[in-house]
Design brief:
By secondary structure, the protein is an alpha+beta fold. The protein has a domain at 10-126 and 270-431: Thiolase/Chalcone synthase (Peroxisomal Thiolase, Chain A, domain 1, 3-Layer(aba) Sandwich), CATH 3.40.47.10. 35% of the residues lie in helices and 17% in strands. The protein contains 14 helices and 12 strands. It has helices spanning 32-47, 71-78, 96-109, 133-144, 148-154, 179-190, 194-213, 246-250, 283-289, 314-326, 343-353, 356-363, 383-386, 393-408, and strands at residues 10-17, 21-22, 56-60, 87-90, 115-122, 224-225, 233-234, 272-282, 295-304, 335-338, 412-419, 423-431. The strands form 2 sheets. Strands 1, 2, 3, 4, 5, 8, 9, 10, 11 and 12 form a 10-stranded mixed β-sheet that branches.
Length: 432
């Protein structure tokens, strides 16, 4: 262990996830809570865990329901866990499940809990829509009216534009720039070509297709039966394109800069519905219950930069901190899962981590952090192909990495995630 971990050693026992499906498709009649319940129930079944052993539930989400803002509690109760266990929801944009996992780990390390279920869920189909402020004012006035005349008066002079709903913001409040626009700017500033982005996207789809075909990705997926009749089952991710090619990707138009841009739907992660769940224990508790962990958390780090800079460059700032805390270097990392929000973001972070100049200017380090061989990065594809349900992705990365480390007999792995708000996350995991 490096000197960055304080407290008891935290084991990751197992994890699973629902299929990740494009928004508006197979899970369109399911909520994030429904998906979270499916993932947690399967986790309990797979591990044969006595639900009474669970001390805490921590769950991440980004687009919160106004009807059930504490999704963790609803997932806990819906999955049949004892109500005595506290449950709370966390949100750190695309790193929300990572925040849930590290919050769980901190509770265990401090001795506050022995067994915690963490993860996250997102339904980008089921997003809350708000009425406009003028319409809200009219509705409030009408609800307070004592006569029919007063109710009618509340809506007098109403204009059609007041009926247009307000959707969740997709732009950074501080800059007005969307993540896609930021990825486009990163591509331009860092000289990331359209061909390079499309090649990375093609790689993601090809490797995800291979990981599905040989069963490695299917191993982490819980089949989900679709309501209301439950006669249809979804047992795999539906965004993986087995028939795509560089030629097909090249035909797609830029989305965020239609004239000069290079970021397209093909080299970006799609809007996705899905959930993940991870079981964490103290090392002592795992031994007492007879579990063989998949691995242990060696270190983690969050980092942030100005949103007006390169919004999605957070991994390049977080990774060196996590590596230092673990007492290792990038050369020691044997497998790496990096979240693919956009191919431009992935390649920009690679460029930064492999730059002495970036290390000196931004990190105050004498030399670059470095990279590992590409054939050890996202070996079963990434979010571009598999999908990105905001609150759930961090759980998938954890599960995917540890399962593959076990299969290959590897000792150290790295997870990195970019997140809205110009934040980054990194975690070093070691195999049991």
């Amino acid at each position: 262990m490096g000197n960055g971990w304080i407290g008891r050693r935290v084991a990751i026992i197992d994890g699973c996830r629902t299929p990740f499906v494009k928004a508006g498709t197979a899970f369109k009649h399911m909520t994030a809570i429904d998906l979270g319940i499916a993932a947690v129930r399967e986790l309990i079944a797979r591990t044969e865990l006595d639900p009474a052993e669970v001390d805490e539930v921590v769950y991440g989400t980004v687009v919160h329901s106004v009807l059930a803002p504490n999704i963790a509690r609803e997932v806990q109760l819906g999955a049949g866990l004892p109500p005595r266990a506290p449950a709370y929801t966390v949100s750190r944009a695309c790193a929300s499940a990572n925040q849930a996992i590290t919050s769980a780990a901190d509770s265990i390390a401090r001795g506050y809990a022995d067994v915690v279920i963490a993860g996250g869920a997102e339904s980008l189909t089921d997003v809350p829509l708000l009425v406009s402020r003028p319409l809200r004012d009219r509705l409030v006035a009408a609800s307070r009216a004592k006569t029919m005349g007063q109710r009618v008066k509340a809506f007098a002079g109403m204009r059609p534009k007041e009926l247009v709903p307000t959707t969740p913001a997709i732009a950074e409040p501080s800059t007005g720039e969307t993540m896609g626009e930021s990825a486009e700017r990163m591509a331009k500033e860092n000289g990331i070509t359209r061909e390079a982005q499309d090649r990375w996207a093609l790689r993601s789809h090809r490797l995800a297709a291979e990981g599905t075909a040989d069963g490695r990705l299917l191993k982490e997926i819980v089949p989900v039966y679709i309501p209301p009749n439950y006669d249809e089952v979804v047992d795999r991710d539906n965004g993986i394109r087995t028939d795509t090619s560089l030629e097909k990707l090249a035909t797609l138009p830029p989305v965020f800069d239609r004239r000069y841009g290079t970021v397209t739907a093909g080299n970006s992660s799609p809007l996705t519905d899905g959930a993940s769940a991870v079981l964490l224990m103290s090392e002592e508790k795992a031994k007492a219950l007879g579990y063989e962990p998949l691995g242990y958390i060696r270190s983690y780090a969050f980092a942030a930069l100005s949103p007006s800079a390169q919004l999605l460059q957070g991994p390049a700032y977080a990774a060196p901190i996590a590596l230092d805390r673990a007492g290792v270097t990038m050369k020691d990392i044997e497998l790496w899962e990096i979240h693919e929000a956009f191919a431009a973001q992935v390649l920009s972070n690679f460029q930064a981590l492999d730059s002495d100049e970036f290390a000196r200017r931004e990190l105050g380090r004498s030399q670059k952090v470095g990279l590992i061989d590409e054939d050890r990065i996202n070996v079963m594809g990434g979010s571009i192909a598999i999908g990105h349900p905001f609150g759930a992705t961090g759980g998938r990365l954890t599960i995917t990495l540890l399962n593959e480390m076990k299969r290959r007999g590897l000792g150290l792995g790295l997870i990195t995630v970019c997140a809205a708000g110009a934040m980054g996350f990194a975690m070093v995991l070691e195999r049991a």
